[in-house]
Specification:
alpha/beta; Uracil-DNA Glycosylase, subunit E; six-stranded mixed β-sheet; single chain; globular
């Protein structure tokens, strides 16, 4: 069975997941109530699978769908402020064919990049519980096993910590900080970035230049592969 087909089957399993009652209730409530600006939208209101190039060498891992972003559109980092910050950087670095993402049918194509997340359902207050993240972890593990990325970019401390727990061998002297780069058992490289959330970008904690440097670093790494 080829990789795209396996990813398609995994995507279907993710979309049909109802394991976490709190998240199921919340994602559906948000999809029903909607936001005033999007009252004409038919919200996705389901778990959001990863997406991108099945043969990518780079994988980016975020935290969870946004209430009126991915939970509305059905695609990671699409239709909200985080995506508005992310995709121009990806376009500039050559990982995306366009600098915007607003719907499943907007023509966005990722090159050499697959985007996923720790949690697939929108959590209340953007805070999934540890149990919810553990329940969702097998989906991420299977995506990584199928994609087999050489470079993994984690957005934010929570994504970093969750990925770190997934490592089979404990890594020494690894701490999360923006721009940190770590070799993982000589097989993969981990790149740490602040999450492109509005909380970080509007306060200046994460600037366009800082985020651009992350993707410049990733580009330099894959040049050596």
């Amino acid at each position: 069975m080829d990789k795209p087909r396996k990813l398609s089957e995994l995507e279907e399993n993710i979309i049909n997941c109802n394991i976490c009652p709190r998240l199921v209730s919340w994602r559906e409530k948000v999809a029903y109530q909607k936001r005033k600006a999007f009252m004409d939208w038919d919200y996705w209101g389901k778990p959001v699978p990863g997406f991108g190039d099945p043969n990518s060498r780079v994988m980016a891992i975020g935290l969870a769908p946004g209430a009126h972003g991915s939970n509305r559109t059905g695609r990671m980092f699409t239709g909200d402020a985080s995506g508005d910050f992310l995709y121009p950087a990806l376009y500039t670095a050559g990982f995306a064919n366009q600098a915007n993402a607003y719907s499943l049918n907007d023509g966005l194509i990722l090159h050499d990049l697959f985007i996923s997340a720790v949690c697939r359902c929108v959590p209340p207050s953007n805070k999934p519980s540890k149990i919810e993240m553990v329940s969702c972890q097998p989906f991420l593990e299977k995506e990584i096993a199928l994609i087999q990325p050489h470079v993994i970019v984690v957005f934010g401390r929570i994504a970093y910590e969750r990925f770190n727990r997934m490592l089979l061998q404990k890594q020494q002297q690894m701490i999360f900080k923006h721009g940190a780069v770590y070799s993982l058992n000589g097989k993969q490289t981990l790149v740490c970035s602040y999450h492109p959330s509005r909380q970080n970008t509007q306060t200046g904690r994460l600037t366009v230049e800082m985020f651009g440097q992350i993707w410049s670093t990733v580009t330099e790494i894959i040049k050596t592969l």
